[in-house]
């Protein structure tokens, strides 16, 4: 993994090297091992390198033999060996052993279609001297970030938003429509970001800049179309195991040691077992241990460690730890978040780096593509209830689904019907699976100031998202629709960014995800819904695939969603100093985003110990994280930039 940045001036005039240096310096945490620049006429490329493959020969920006192509690249092309061999047969010669040079020659051979050859996770920019064209691409699932800004004079891009905000003349203002989206879906809909004039290249898209014209194209998106032929369950399971084993093998390609995250659940345990099959050596694993038993999974982690005989390290995470590091978490997340879950991941990557590891494999992506989340079961129960809305028994299944939400257990059937949107008319919504989550999140907008509410009152976030749905979407199974929303939006925009890339790269650690191998994703998309969820047995086929590789107690345990302590992290005996400051009436009023009195009542509720439930905790986390964004990126960016 690395950090990339670049400037293209549309008009005559060379790129100021000081500006390019400023852009890359602010993201040196992404690549502390090497620094490189390429400047020519009106183009400048920069690169901060985290050396993982071809440690000696992978310096960037890299050029091809005649210097007609230059690339700055963040990520890994895991099948670079196979693509390299294909290109050698076509007559190309290589001067390095890096995957970066493979990108250059693949582009020379296939043009913009080169991305179809790659199995990897990437964000790269290629300057084509012959056609005077800049070509940018982002991987299929959006593992690696890529942001840009367009003005009449320049096109600028970078791995992180802070690189663009460091340039003179770039407005540092929150995008209120993006804020409305975050307080609906948990994420801004790309290309929109939390900041005005800063855009994100969506997953599975490429971008070209030619003669001042910016064009984006989709080259991939999730598509669900199960085959009509009937295949035995065990045959599917065997094929899946072979695919995952090869996906893991490819992601072990590295010139530095590779470890693994171990949560104690099915997904990370299976990946760890597959790593052991591929290497035959004792693996180093890393995990989070919570002091609060409500969130702790360490007993399962220890069972896996004994079963797979890994060399294990864990980071202990307390309420105080989350509160203490939260400002750093938001600095790296670059957008408001509604959950504190990124904070423990920040601590985990710090532990990995302290143990001199740069690369970890994780089980991320499995829940999205194999149907593991409670939201999938919840939607199935709601639809089951919706066809018999007068039933007094069917809604009780929802209480059984969420035993870790004690407040839900006390609610009436009437409340459950209103909260879970199980009415017949709700079944017609294209967002049926996500309505309860998004409606609950939308209630947090009562904390917006009058000015913000006035500006966003006529905005319809659902309409914007609906316009992006593929044509085939209405005909898909309900489970596939829910999976598309999770894998296409929440996964890249929150899981892989706020909890993934940003928290890992804050400490120069690269995450790799075998479940997000495009072959695995396409295989999962082509499965019948019943093999993903058999009645309410989630990830049915994956459990069958893992039968001989994962301890029975771990394989059969109920799904425990990854969560972290929230309100208690900000209000406790050793409360962080910044909390009172950010939530003070003066600070809320100055920020202009939230309503002073309404926030004050919420704060008092927490101080009195009366705050309960998901809504209060999400509201507090969202308000604090937004206030931190205002403080770090708008009011005090220069000071924070210097500190970074």
What does this structure look like?
The mean pLDDT is 94. The protein is globular. The protein has three domains: 2-218, 4-Layer Sandwich (Glutamine Phosphoribosylpyrophosphate, subunit 1, domain 1); 223-373 and 478-644, HUPs (Rossmann fold); 374-477, no CATH class. Helix 2 crosses helix 3, helix 12 runs antiparallel to helix 19 (478-495) and helix 29 (613-635) packs across helix 30 (637-643). 44% of the residues lie in helices and 15% in strands. The chain has 644 residues and is an alpha+beta fold. A six-stranded antiparallel sheet has the order 2-3-1-9-8-10. A six-stranded antiparallel sheet has the order 4-5-6-7-11-12, with helices on one face. It contains 30 helices and 19 strands.
User: Would you give the CATH topology of the largest domain?
Assistant: Rossmann fold
CATH superfamily of the largest domain: HUPs
How many angstroms separate the termini?
19 Å
Across the major sheet, the strand order is 2-3-1-9-8-10
Helix fraction? 40-55%
CATH architecture descriptor text of the largest domain: 3-Layer(aba) Sandwich
Query: Main β-sheet: number of strands, strand sense, barrel status?
Result: 6 strands, antiparallel
Please give the CATH class of the largest domain.
Alpha Beta
Low-confidence stretches: none
Bulk shape: globular
Helix vs. strand class: alpha+beta
Beta content: 15-25%
Number of strands: 19
Average of the residue pLDDT scores: 94
Q: Helical stretch count?
A: 30
Rg over CA atoms: 24 Å
């Amino acid at each position: 993994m690395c950090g990339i940045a670049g400037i293209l001036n549309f008009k005559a005039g060379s790129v100021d090297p000081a500006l390019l240096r400023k852009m890359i310096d602010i993201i040196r945490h992404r690549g502390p091992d090497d620094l490189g620049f390429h400047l020519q006429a009106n183009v400048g490329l920069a690169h901060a390198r985290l050396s993982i493959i071809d440690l000696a020969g992978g310096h960037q920006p890299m050029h091809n033999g005649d210097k007609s192509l230059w690339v700055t690249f963040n990520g890994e092309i895991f099948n670079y060996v196979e693509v390299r061999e294909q290109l050698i047969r076509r007559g190309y010669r290589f001067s390095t052993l890096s995957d970066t040079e493979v990108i250059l020659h693949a582009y020379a051979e296939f043009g913009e279609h080169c991305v179809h050859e790659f199995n990897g996770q990437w964000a790269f920019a290629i300057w084509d001297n012959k056609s005077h064209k800049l070509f940018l691409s982002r991987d299929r699932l959006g593992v690696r970030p890529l942001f840009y800004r367009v003005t009449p004079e320049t096109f600028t891009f970078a791995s992180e938003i802070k690189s663009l905000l460091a340039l003179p003349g770039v407005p540092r203002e929150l995008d209120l429509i993006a804020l409305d989206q975050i307080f609906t879906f948990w994420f801004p809909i790309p290309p929109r970001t939390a900041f005005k004039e800063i855009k994100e290249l969506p997953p599975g898209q490429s971008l070209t800049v030619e003669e001042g014209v910016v064009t984006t194209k989709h080259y991939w998106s999730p598509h669900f179309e199960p085959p009509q032929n009937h295949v035995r369950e065990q045959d599917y399971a065997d094929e899946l195991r072979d695919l995952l084993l090869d996906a893991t093998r490819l992601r072990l390609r590295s010139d530095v040691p590779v470890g693994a995250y171990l949560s104690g659940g099915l997904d990370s345990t299976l990946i760890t077992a597959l790593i052991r099959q591929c290497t035959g050596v004792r693996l180093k694993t890393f995990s989070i241990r919570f002091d609060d038993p409500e969130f702790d999974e360490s007993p399962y982690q220890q069972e896996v460690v004994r079963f797979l005989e890994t060399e294990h390290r864990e980071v202990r995470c307390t309420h105080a730890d989350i509160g203490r590091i939260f400002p750093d978490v938001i600095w790296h997340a670059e957008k408001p978040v509604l959950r504190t879950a990124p904070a423990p991941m920040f601590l985990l990557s710090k532990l990995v780096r302290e143990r001199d590891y740069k690369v970890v494999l994780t089980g991320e992506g499995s829940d999205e593509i194999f149907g593991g989340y409670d939201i999938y079961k919840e939607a199935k129960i709601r639809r089951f209830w919706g066809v018999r809305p007068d039933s007094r028994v069917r809604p009780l299944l929802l209480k059984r689904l969420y035993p870790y939400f004690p407040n839900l257990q006390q609610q009436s059937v009437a409340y459950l019907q209103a909260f879970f949107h199980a009415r017949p008319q709700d079944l017609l919504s294209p967002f049926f699976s996500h309505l309860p989550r998004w409606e609950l999140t939308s209630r947090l907008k009562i904390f917006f100031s009058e000015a913000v509410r006035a500006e966003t009152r006529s905005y319809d976030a659902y309409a914007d998202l609906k316009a992006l749905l593929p044509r085939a979407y209405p005909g898909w199974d309900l489970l596939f629709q829910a999976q598309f929303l999770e894998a296409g939006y929440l996964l890249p925009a929150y899981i892989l960014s706020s909890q993934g890339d940003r928290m890992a790269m804050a400490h120069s650690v690269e995450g790799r995800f075998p479940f997000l191998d495009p072959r695995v994703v396409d295989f999962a998309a082509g499965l019948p819904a019943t093999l993903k969820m058999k009645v309410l047995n989630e990830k049915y086929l994956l459990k069958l695939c893992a039968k001989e590789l994962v301890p029975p107690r771990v394989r059969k345990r109920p799904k425990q969603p990854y969560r972290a302590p929230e309100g208690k992290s900000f209000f406790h005996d050793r409360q962080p100093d910044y909390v009172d400051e950010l939530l003070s009436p003066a600070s809320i009023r100055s920020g202009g985003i939230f309503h002073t009195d309404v926030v004050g009542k919420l704060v008092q509720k927490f101080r009195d110990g009366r705050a309960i439930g998901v809504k209060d905790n999400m509201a507090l986390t969202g308000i604090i994280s937004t206030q931190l964004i205002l403080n770090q990126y708008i009011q005090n960016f220069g000071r924070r930039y210097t500190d970074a």
